[in-house]
Design a protein that fits this description.
By secondary structure, this protein is an alpha/beta fold. It has a single domain, classed as TIM Barrel, CATH 3.20.20.370. Helices cover 37% and strands 13% of the residues. It contains eight helices and ten strands. Strands 2, 3, 4, 7, 8, 9 and 10 form a seven-stranded mixed sheet that branches. A three-stranded parallel sheet has the order 1-6-5, with helices on one face. Helix 6 (156-174) runs parallel beside helix 7.
């Protein structure tokens, strides 16, 4: 290459590099912030992935740093049926771990859904790998006992074994200890609360709304904890039930938030 040609090429490279560096750094940070805030991922010009899942548009992002609203009384964890909040948010929860729908993993990943999975060891069986994949895309893993018994009325040693046993199972599988506990069938007594506290759990979570074939039993309100049943033998899949409730959430002007951020 001739000297003049080499100089010209070097000068062009410097100018191009300068142009690339002249992009407003605040603009670059702003683009990253938008992607980080939204639980549904960065918006796309063609509307994907929202239209792909039958949603007309992305849901709004929830508040970034909500205040936790629960507190222990007398050393026992609170029992929460719905979250008292003025934020326009609801919470999606799933029990047992019977239904291992691979499309549900795709849904949570593409929409970045902050869902909470309350797992029972005897129901999950050999399927912990499925829930490891869910956790890797943003789902949280919580406690729903080892064997799914109705706890109310059982003696303390039995309740503690069920609750603490699942804490240890989750720790051995995922390296974490759940903070939230859902008693099977929603039944509990003071012994349940004492055992949950002794097992290191910070809240006992029930629900305010359940689904009928993917449709909430009543219109959703801010703070609702929605129980999405899993393991149904007939009817819509877990993915279909979830997309149906997401459309109801959109119609109500609400969005999905992470339950653990509020409890």
């Amino acid at each position: 290459m001739r000297p003049r040609t080499l100089v010209a090429a070097c000068l062009a490279a410097v100018l191009l590099t300068g142009c690339a560096q002249s992009v407003d750094p605040i603009e670059r940070l702003g683009k990253k912030a938008v992607q980080r805030v939204s639980p549904y991922g960065p918006a796309r010009a063609d509307g994907r992935p929202y239209r792909h899942w039958g949603l007309p548009a992305p849901l709004p992002a929830p508040p970034r740093m909500p205040a936790r609203t629960t507190a222990r009384r007398g050393g026992l964890p609170p029992v929460v049926r719905r979250v008292e909040t003025s934020d326009k948010v609801v919470f999606l929860t799933y029990d047992d771990g019977a239904e291992k729908d691979p499309r549900f993993v795709e849904l949570v990943r593409e929409l970045r859904l902050p869902v909470s999975m309350f797992l029972t060891d005897s129901v999950v069986g050999p399927g912990y790998g499925h829930f490891a994949r869910l956790r890797s895309v943003g789902a949280s893993i919580q406690n729903h006992t080892l064997d799914h018994p109705a706890l109310r009325g059982l003696p303390y040693p039995g309740q503690r074994a069920e609750i603490c046993g699942q804490q240890e199972k989750v720790r051995s599988r995922f390296g974490i200890r759940p903070r939230l506990f859902r008693p099977p069938y929603g039944t509990y007594d003071r012994t349940t609360l004492r055992a949950a506290a002794d097992c290191g759990l910070s809240a006992v979570v029930l629900w305010s709304v359940s689904l009928r074939g993917g449709t909430p039993e009543r219109p959703l309100r801010a703070g609702d904890i929605v129980s999405v049943a899993s393991g149904e033998a007939t009817g819509p899949t877990l993915t279909e039930r979830t997309t149906r409730v997401l459309r109801e959430i959109q119609r109500g002007g609400l969005t999905v938030a992470r339950l653990e951020d509020y409890l």
